[in-house]
Amino acid sequence: MRLAIIGMGLMGGSLALTLKKKGFVQNVIGVDPNVEHQQKALELGIIDEVMDLDKAIAASDIIAIATPVNIAEQLLPLILNQVDKQVVFDVGSTKESIVHIANAQSKKGRFVPTHPMWGTEFSGPAAAQSDAFAEKATVICNKEQIDEDALELVEKLYQQLGMHILYMNAKQHDIHVAYVSHISHITSFALANTVLEKEKESDAIFELASGGFESTVRLAKSNADMWVPIFMQNKENVLDVLNEHISQLRKFKASLEKENFEYLSELIHNANQIKRILK
Amino acid sequence: MRLAIIGMGLMGGSLALTLKKKGFVQNVIGVDPNVEHQQKALELGIIDEVMDLDKAIAASDIIAIATPVNIAEQLLPLILNQVDKQVVFDVGSTKESIVHIANAQSKKGRFVPTHPMWGTEFSGPAAAQSDAFAEKATVICNKEQIDEDALELVEKLYQQLGMHILYMNAKQHDIHVAYVSHISHITSFALANTVLEKEKESDAIFELASGGFESTVRLAKSNADMWVPIFMQNKENVLDVLNEHISQLRKFKASLEKENFEYLSELIHNANQIKRILK
């Protein structure tokens, strides 16, 4: 099986490395306008050769779109126009918008909209990992629109990666990820900005930062080129969750201002229920 | 050397286990009104015997106060009244308030106000670790008020734990920890409440939660009995930071509402500067 990876960053690179290691693909073609990424990906053994988009489509059995979500939307019609028996899938963090674009294409049955729930705060081919994805969930959206053989191939691919497949419609997906992924990134970015603002006054502050700070702010290292388009595409859902989050923070603020420590304790006990979900 | 641990939770238990393993203390006395904690601590080899507070003070060379910060304030005068050559230190997350209380005591020179910047989101003796604290920073406050021998002993203790000692005044300490510790806990609690609120409508949401969510929400498992008194004592600083954090979140909100994606990108690029501090 020959895989074409469009975009050789963290996701594309990790897909290529892991699928090759598992023996699911034998040969990987890389497509990326960034020459540095091309060279790095060749160097790291992520891809076997670089091709232009058109040639890569013609030469491959399965095509993974692993670019920022705004680029994926631009590329999808171009790619679907050129496919015959090939299977195309994306790995983007938003689904409603790309499914909408796919629906206008005659070959929409060849496209499998997916979202593997794996990632790190790092980006670029050097961040790629060869044992990624295992034990995590992946989403396949609107499966009733997908050609049977295309769906089957992508399901097999995710099973090979050791992922647990969830099926849902794109709209539901986008609401859910606003809660369990997008808002975490916004709070981390905002927390980093809060603390960096303070740092201007005091150099010593970060000598005190320990594990708790690190884990809540880790995501603030995430790449703007990837995340701005995600937030744009999922604007309505992200705003809903952000408003709810600000209102939850205001409850903490009110309990402190009013020295209502019983209420503060209640808020914390309620938050502790997250133990049911996070072990 | 004989150590008395007042409060046998995560901090007290980890201190006892690690200091014994390092050979810094040979014998550990435990003081805790919670009978279950007493038994668990004996079972786990955290302590060698249980004593009442008065007897423990008389029988020990060094006394660690490792209770919630409100209890520490109540105990400190009682303990200082009974010490002679013993050294007393605390490990609480707020320092201004306890230093203020110490200052009213005639034996204030025997008390070393400290804050080791180590912890986990778990609590109780079962959460204690025997290889804790290493490579982290610890703070000693207002050292000019401390008897020379007492300061030296506590410095030696933290050096044995492999910690890097920072000296600062209690006021500065409380401002800094509001930024690098207390606000992280509040955002985690609020984020957990945001998502738990949504969960009522949808069971599937947590199947999608991955590493990013887990790391930003991990601290939401933290114990209310420990954190409410910290927030109470550091109320003014925490409110300052919380207001700044809410205003940073509002910038993200405004950029999304106005679809000002250039500004959104700027906010994220600014947050990325946290890379300078977190590797």
CATH class of the largest domain in chain A: Alpha Beta
* Spatial extent as radius of gyration of chain A: 21 Å
Strand order in space, largest sheet of chain A: 3-2-1-4-5-6-7-8
Query: Biggest chain pair contact, residues each?
Result: A-B, 92 and 92 residues
Predict the CATH topology of the largest domain in chain A.
Answer: Rossmann fold
Weakly predicted, low-confidence segments of chain A: none
Helix-strand blueprint:
Two copies of one chain form a homodimer.
Chain A: E1 2-6, H1 10-21, E2 27-31, H2 35-43, E3 49-50, H3 53-59, E4 62-65, H4 69-82, E5 87-90, H5 96-103, E6 111-116, E7 137-141, H6 148-160, E8 164-168, H7 170-199, H8 211-217, H9 224-233, H10 235-257, H11 261-272
Parallel strand pairs in A: 1-2, 1-4, 2-3, 4-5, 5-6, 7-8
Antiparallel strand pairs in A: 6-7
